[in-house]
Write a structure and sequence with these properties.
6 helices; globular
Amino acid sequence: MKKMKLVIAIVFVATSFSSFAQMPEHSANPKLIAVVNRANWCAVCKANATRFGAVLMPYSAKGVNIYLNDLTNETTKEISKQELEKADVFVAVNTIPRQGMGKVLKACRLVSDKKQTQDVSGIVTFINPKTHKQVKQISIAESDEVITKTINSLLN
């Protein structure tokens, strides 16, 4: 029964973020790692997922490994944690405080203090694949231009 719940949860996670339903293969030697924090209850995710996915997904062919960190509930968090630990990026994704995001999150009334930012969805964390350290975070609500410019600058 426990295995069945895990399988159902994995299927749910894989299909719950519409534009990320078919995640690309991960490169053995990525140039950059992107981890998208998302949740079913997240209004920012719902409003921006399709557009953001259309901007981000082509970068997988340019050496960006993309992972989802589903914060919907405890089951999806645990599944995501296991996948992120396998990729050696869990610590980088859960770095507190999230550099540069505190003011944005407070302004959007998503958090009241830095301790709450660990479970904030609607953001993408970029990680250096050699050091496995966080290099940048942005909201998925940013414009296509800002997202593209950010990723291109991190790839150069």
